[in-house]
Amino acid sequence: MSERREPTIFVQGNESYWLADVPILPGCIASGTSRELAIANARRAFRAYRELLDTRGVSIAHWKDLDPDTFAVADYPATGLPEDERALEEHEARDFLHQFEASRAALIGLVKGLSPEQLDQRPTETMWSVRQALEHIMTSDVLLLSRTERWPEDPFNTLQAVHRLVFQRLSVMDPTEQRKRRVVNGRTWTVRTVMRRLLEHEYEHYGQIKEIMAGLGGDPPPE
Predict the structure, then answer these.
(1) Dihedral pair phi/psi, residue 144, rounded to 5°
(2) What is the per-residue pLDDT across 48-61, written as a single tens digit (0 to 9) for each?
(3) Who's near 27: CB < 8 A, 6+ residues apart?
(4) Burial letters for 184-219: b for 16+ Cβ neighbours within 10 Å, e otherwise?
(5) The architecture CATH gives domain 1-79
(6) What is the pTM of this model?
(7) Alpha carbon distances (Å) from 95 to 1, 19, 40, 68, 90
(8) Rounded distance between C-alpha atoms, residue 185 and residue 30, angstroms
(9) Domain positions in the chain
(10) Secondary structure (3-state) at 109
């Protein structure tokens, strides 16, 4: 059985951007333009996130009786959150998948009624559009998931996993989908454009890595 952990809000940041983590409720985080505001937002975020999970059918028994106003506050440790150093218990991966499913369903439910124009609209010049935020989530998911592979000792597992995603997507695409044109962030994309850019991007960085290896004095790779 895991030890009882004292709820703590961990804060990091500088100048006008601060983040506050509440690791006792995985996924709960808030930001603010000052340390105090980030902490206050984290206390509110705890209640809101707990309610979201409850609404989506995730058990909140572990957090139901916790009062975020009583949580301690500490600076974010330079070595990372102490929560992350505990050995993963057998049930935690299953709990994560349930929570992740609920979180993603809530996200999709939030935006699925938006039109393409609304997805691309930016409220102000300094704010992202909804589409930009969603694309950031997607690319970050791939990057974060790569940290569970044998990276950096063996980066090829991650490269192969992404390769499988590409192969699967294009293998099941029907002719109607193949002919569609899509406008994303003001730019037109076809399937041919995506395929070309995948190959171009790969080859561009193939050359870059060759240059890096040459600069380090490594043996040139076989052509």
Answers:
(1) -65, -40
(2) 999 999 999 999 99
(3) 49, 99, 103
(4) eeeeeeebeeeeeeeeeeeeeeeeeeeeeeeeeeee
(5) 2-Layer Sandwich (3.30)
(6) 0.77
(7) 16, 25, 27, 22, 9
(8) 27
(9) 1-79, 173-223
(10) helix
